[in-house]
What we know:
This protein is mainly α. It has helices at 44-48, 59-77, 89-117, 126-148, 166-172, 174-178, 184-195; strands at 79-80, 83-84.
Amino acid sequence: AEEAGFEGILLADHVFAPESFSSKYPYDEGGKPPFDGSTLFPEVWSTISALAHERSGISEFHGMMRNLERLKALARTSMKNGRPAIEEPQIRKRIVRAETKIEAMRLNGMRFLTKQLNGEKLSSETSINKLHRALLEIEIGEIALEIQGSAAPLWQGAEPAAEDGHWQKFALSWPEVVIGGGTPNIQKNIIAERILGLPKD
Length: 201
């Protein structure tokens, strides 16, 4: 999608859309959503079958690696305790831990792709990468804010904020990834019950 000039792809995840909105839409300056009851969306139930493949490859790995490389660049150019932040042992340790988890995502993704190439259907195992990604989104945002120190609370337009507030926005936007598609607790339950065979609550 990015190579074609798109930032992302939006699909409907609601059974119906209201004809009008009384509350202010948060993602538009005028407060109005870019859709209404007459807007055409892909039929929801037909889309659901495709969701089994949402986490079945390595696309999430590539997205997380881009975020990690950008975080490394921030750590190289930001100063902490009189030296580049990337030289701080705790910062390095957290970055290495994040990169290890991302590599685990890649290996899981390759395993999922191999199963599909062999004609096998995927099941609950895709929740593993969803869980990894959810926790990584939070961790990477927290590391970036820690690197910025006192500039962490600043927003776009504030000079001390690194990359014009990119990481502040990143840290605040994780709920749409972490909550969307099932929270970490939901993913843990799926892994525990359907993969490990542990008893239900």
